[in-house]
Design goal:
alpha/beta, 6-stranded mixed beta sheet, 12 strands, 58% helix, 9% strand
Amino acid sequence: MVSPAQKIFEATSESLYDFVSKNGRGLYIPPYQRDYAWDRSNVERLIDDTLQGLDALLKRPDESITFIGTIITMNDAKKTTINPLVKNQVYGQVMTVIDGQQRLTTLLMLCLALLLEIETQWNELKKSKVTVSDETKIWIETRVNDMRGLLSQMLAEKQNNGEGAFRFFPKMIRAFIDTWSYDADKAVYESPIAWLLFEFVSFREQNDPNWAKFLPHLQKSADKSAENGRILKLMKVMRAKLKALPSDEEFPRLLDIVRDTGKQETLFGEEFPRAMQEALEAILSSQSHELMVDDAGELELEVDDAKTKNWWQAATGLVSLLFFARFALERITLVVVTATTEDFAFDVFEALNTTGQPLTAIETFTPKVVQSVGLAKYNSSEEKKQLDIAFSYLKRASKAEERQKRSADLLVAFALAETGEKRSKNLAEQRRFMRESFDMCKTRPDQQLFIRHLADLSRFFDAVWVDGDSKPALGGDPLADPVALCLRFLVDIGHTITAPLLAQYAAEVTSAAPEDRATALSEFSCVVRAVTAFTILWRASRTTTDRIDSVYRDLMSKGAKEFGVPELARVLISTES
């Protein structure tokens, strides 16, 4: 019997290969996810962690994995999150990645870097005229072919239709930027990871591609995009790191592997051919320090025959890459949490996330606005202009925790100002509020009013509701000292419940015609003084706050009819009018 929890989400541990390469599965980065941001240190640490796991595998064959954390996804069975979407030209199963896109992107890049390095070193071996046993060459070629197939499945999947490279869908794309399609005029792969994966497929479709030239081939295209250029630099970091694997202090000693058939079984499921064991042992055991590299990262093998040296140099590096690649695919392990809806996925993410940087409710709301306006029109739209005001306020906080707090406080106040309702700071609840409230706006002008109201409140918090050494200002002009003092008092005692009310009058000032501005400013100043006086009198006549917040909530949701004050929440005012 399926439990209620299983209907909401399920969690499984999967190898990197099993999760990504599954036939018919594509990975989708939703539009609210931040851009790829890992740097050189992140990439090198991931490879180092994998190396440590590989070394541990030879000591504890049944226990060693490299665990890289939890990936949170939504199985988008109805393809509702995919935009743009070419119907019937998409993966059968689309996994929308709620958390883990930085790691998954890097791992796909690592798979491509491994494939490029394996192809390059294998081409060097094939060109060599050195005489080695057929058994050795066949064994290496078979392992290369096997690994080529496995790594290729991690990068793109062949479809039943399409011509040339368009017959393949990259394994990962990003919303609003990329489009899966086997029609050349509809397919778009412009985000850094989709661009990289599709360029790989396009290059592979050439006759006898020279893989040593693949990254230089991409440089001209990458020079036109800072993001693509940065991801290409990280690919080069990976290539250099992989090329120097045999000399890495964390990499298992190759001579130990050559001399131990049990370790060969652990790594490859079979022993090396006898001729290969003997040749590798002879050349590796002759090294005073077993393996050394020069400044260019080339292996220094002490043999007299230059051709033999070059062949075994490539062979030794290639075997090391095959070790590493097999471990990475089979033993890099993820816990994959798959939810049935985006809301459930976010709920799981918030429960599990303790050290990351969760997206704010405003960030996850933005794609809904983009979808409503249209991607082509969004950048020049009034909606983006107003949302940028809200983001400007959030970005003034340098730390993620402070941005999250600013967003939560802002949306609690916004809910009260918009609908007169009390809303919690719970992130999932705030996401739902923003989405559902926006859906209730049936026309674009109504949607613009909703977003402009959020911008007005953000501007109020940014310039008027300030603490520290800042002086409250309205429309760029500092407020008179008595009003500024009142505002500072309200801020200092944490009386944020008054902000939605005051922000409405502040917005009247900034939107007033020049000839009406003085009147609007005078009215705002009167309201600030009245709110401050009421707060002081209320608190002075009681030993506690005695539900003063409910007074302001009632004012927003019900008004004060006995004094001729209507409901002040924006939606209620609109309904009355």
